[in-house]
Write a structure and sequence with these properties.
Length: 476
């Protein structure tokens, strides 16, 4: 009886086969791809990668490329490089992905070095390799390497590829070699809309606005990008009326503008100083379903501010769902220059609470607000925070605000103890910047703030020699 009871658990399992690793569902390539697509953060990506390795899929280059792309999207290029190095013999497509992702993540020089390694190891580039490497050359502004890649593409038989030729044009124009850019365009057997638009933008960048317009008129087919490129050219060259004339033609040709078309037209309104025209563009955007995105919204704020309609600028700012640093800067600066110092500083506080990290331009706007409020103490507090909390190197504009406030203060020396107590290095930077900005006109006032002993002056003089090499100092 005891034996029967003791054997009962086994009897309960009598009709079942115990599970084994062999009968578990296999984790294949499709499962791995699905797991990578579901990764919400870097930790989950590493877990998915570990499972891929345990399942013997680490040599699957399709999965490797997907992992590299996911790493890139999260800014984890060092981990992407680790994944790449684990591949025994990467296919050309895999090399291409790694080169492209480096370039997209600001690692253009690493992309070029990886291309060099690819060639040294004897891997043959394809027609996609060269445009990716040329793009890296553009970002690094290394035209000589771009010429070398161009030569390699010719030898490999890919020089007539339209995508490559468009990228080469972009390289030569952006690196200042307009002649080579034109040569590539003129020798193209087939030109896409992108080819024509790249040529137009390149000519504009070289200052040949008339040549750009002639090229624009020769285009067999124009899209919104080519129209916008030409409108942008007129705006950049201070011809806002011509920009609007071209926009009217664009409407006649029934080409719908995009957000960047309207942004350029708002800049033209600012150039013309026409609030009426700017409001018309705003109404046009609303009636045609444009959202107040970062670019359009910021351009509207800038236009309204410069056309003296601060109320409209603030309305746009408040309506924007997503704001970039440039958006915050535009609104803070607008409030500051219009004399609304308290509002500008309050908005600066909101920006910090929203965890938006300010930059040097933000502090120019905030310090300008202090100038309008005649609040030297607050300005100095902001100046110190800029350096100590945000590690921002002060610009001459920052120092100019401090000096203007000091010159307006008309108070006793002891009220400026907080300035005289500044570290020597800061004093050096301040006076050097004043000299750089040509604003140190009141020597007696400067002497009241900055050290004047012989030893300190000698020390400062040696520092200025390093900071401002273009100045000629009399030391004899």
């Amino acid at each position: 009886m005891i034996a029967c009871v003791s054997g009962a658990p086994d009897a309960l399992q009598a009709g079942r086969t115990p599970p084994s690793p062999c009968s578990a569902p296999r984790f294949g390539t499709e499962d791995a791809l699905a797991a990578l697509r579901r990764c919400a953060d870097f930790g989950q990506l590493r877990q998915a990668h570990a499972r891929i390795i345990r399942s013997g899929l680490s040599s699957d280059q399709l999965l490797a490329r997907k992992m590299i792309q996911v790493c890139s999207s999260r800014g984890q290029m060092d981990y992407a490089a680790l994944v790449f190095r684990q591949i025994e013999r990467p296919q050309t497509f895999t090399w291409n992905v790694m080169i492209r992702e480096y370039t997209m993540n600001g690692g253009s020089r690493r992309a070029i070095l990886l291309y060099n390694l690819m060639i040294c190891k004897g891997y043959a580039p394809d027609k996609f390799t060269f445009p990716f490497v040329v793009k890296a050359c553009i970002d690094s502004l290394v035209i000589e390497k771009g010429r070398e890649v161009h030569g390699m593409a010719i030898k490999a038989g890919f020089s007539r590829d339209v995508f490559l030729q468009n990228t080469l044009m972009d390289l030569y124009f952006k690196c200042g070699d307009g002649e080579c850019g034109r040569s590539v365009f003129e020798n193209m057997p087939v030109r896409s809309v992108v080819s024509w638009t790249t040529m137009i933008s390149g000519l504009i960048a070289c200052g040949d606005l008339d040549g750009a317009r002639r090229t624009f008129e020769q285009m067999p087919d124009k899209n919104v990008v080519s129209w916008t490129a030409m409108i942008n050219g007129y705006v950049k060259n201070g011809q806002p009326q011509e920009a609007f004339d071209l926009f009217r033609r664009m409407q006649i040709d029934k080409v719908e503008p995009n957000e960047f078309t309207l942004v350029n037209l708002l800049k033209a309104c600012t150039e013309l100083g026409s609030l009426k025209l700017g409001r018309w563009i705003h109404d046009y955007a609303l009636k045609n379903g444009f959202n107040l995105g970062v670019f359009l919204g910021t351009a509207l704020i800038d236009m309204y501010s410069k056309c003296d309609s601060l109320e409209d600028a603030r309305w746009v700012f408040d309506e924007m769902q997503i704001k970039s640093l440039v958006t915050w800067n535009a609104m803070i600066t607008s409030l500051g220059v219009h004399g609304c110092g308290e509002e500008a500083l309050a908005l600066f506080g909101q920006m910090e609470k929203a965890n938006v990290v300010p930059d040097a331009i933000t502090f120019v706007g905030a310090l300008c607000a202090c100038v309008h409020m005649n609040d030297l103490e607050k300005a100095y507090e902001l100046f110190v925070n800029m350096r100590e909390l945000y590690d921002i190197t002060p610009l001459p504009e920052h120092y100019a605000c401090l000096l203007e406030l000091y010159n307006h203060a008309s108070v006793q020396d002891e009220d400026f103890d907080f300035l005289s107590n500044t570290e020597m290095e800061q004093n050096n930077d301040i006076l050097a910047a004043f000299l750089e900005a040509d604003i140190a006109q009141d020597v007696s006032s400067a002497d009241r703030i900055f050290p004047s002993s012989f030893e300190e002056t000698t020390k400062m003089d040696s520092i200025y020699r390093g900071q401002l090499p273009r100045f000629k100092w009399d030391v004899g």
